[in-house]
Amino acid sequence: MDSSDFYENLPKRSEFHELSDPASYTRLPDDWMIGSADIEGSTKSIRQGRYKTVNMVGAAVISAQINSHGDTPFPYVFGGDGAAFACDPAQADMASQALAAVQCWAGEEFDIRLRTALVPVKTVRDAGLDVTVARYSASEDVDYAMFGGGGISWVEAQMKAGQFAVPVAAPGTHPDLTGLSCRWSPVKSQNGTILSLVVEPVASPPGPEFAQLAETVIAIANNLNRGGHPIPATGAQVGWPPAGLTLEARASRQDQSLFTRRLILTAETLFGWFLFKTGLPVGGFRPDQYRRAVGRNADFRKFDDGLKMTLDCDDGTLKALEQTLIEAKSNGIIEYGLSRQDAAMMTCFVPSALRDDHVHFIDGAAGGYALAAAQIKSSRP
């Protein structure tokens, strides 16, 4: 298989539980690169009420990469306060430039320090770990990458230690964040709790015990309606003005003033709100069809050298999950963190409102994955 065609030719899997099995994954080519980014001090920002901003910056890392890759599919994963991806060597320079641009933009627009790194897969393997990947079809229109092998976590740790850093772009550099938005209202829990769950294996790479534990956790979640999917099948609601209007303006303004871009988006989102409220089709846009696609496409569970899920959870299921995780931790198999909140939130990448391949990253609305991961960090000696 040609290295550049590697990801495009991977089979897409439609059953999420299959992804707990390492045999579902394929090793990345040696000449590929791993990119990683995360927000330094994200927990403090969340405590200050800036979690929507934290999510937006994390999703911007992916948005910039998608726009730099054009129509070429590549693997990426959203982590709440950061992201990771892989690219073939022909895309490495553009990937580095996009990372550097987002780093500059995050600092200038939000006073957020974004750490970034770009590491050859071969370097990861020389360190005794691996990077494996699978494609999961969330719907017939959208698929998401899943990572295994322990290498993504190793790259993140190296990045936090200051290794393999991508130099920040020149002042005033703006990334191409076309399509990045956060217009949906928070989605309230229907079952009692929006639970953001992060489960990390103690062994790296993880062994069969972790795979078995992950399958058990997924089976428990599958007892919930639609596997605990926090977004209704009919989609989320749109309020006006959307809470993320200023964030989207800062992401998309380029050379425009913030005032001008906000004004344009205010008119644009008002028109969109009217269409969703009335269900009135305009041209090729069908509001009800679009809303249903949001529910199908949403990325609410993933493998990222561990298991991450944001679930609409009832008390019985929450207790069953906690009991299972406590036992697995006591047996030395995992570390885990849980973040409870009353709503989920979405940050979106929409290449065109006239297509059904729009991407929606789900997280808890009050800290989500970042706070769950912080629990793991605080429990370590």
Morphology call: globular
Total tally of structural domains: 1
N- to C-terminal separation?
44 Å
Please state the structural category. Answer: alpha+beta
Task: Enumerate the spans where pLDDT stays under 50 for 5 or more consecutive residues.
Answer: none
Q: Quick check: average pLDDT?
A: 93
Give a quick set of tags describing it.
381 residues, alpha+beta, 37% helix, 16 strands, globular, 11 helices
Summarize, please.
With 381 residues, this protein is α+β, with helices and mostly antiparallel strands. The chain has helices spanning 42-47, 51-69, 92-110, 121-126, 151-160, 208-221, 245-252, 258-278, 287-297, 315-330, 368-379; strands spanning 12-13, 26-27, 33-39, 76-78, 82-87, 114-120, 132-137, 143-148, 180-181, 187-188, 193-201, 301-303, 307-313, 334-341, 343-349, 359-364.
Structure commentary:
The protein has one domain. With 381 residues, it is α+β, with helices and mostly antiparallel strands. It is globular, with a radius of gyration of 20 Å. The relative contact order is 0.17. The model has no long low-confidence stretch (mean pLDDT 93). Strands 1, 2, 7 and 8 form a four-stranded mixed β-sheet that branches. Strands 4-5-3-6 form a four-stranded antiparallel β-sheet, sandwiched between helices. Strands 9, 10, 15 and 16 form a four-stranded antiparallel β-sheet that branches. Helices cover 37% and strands 22% of the residues. Strand 4 (76-78) and strand 5 (82-87) form a beta hairpin.
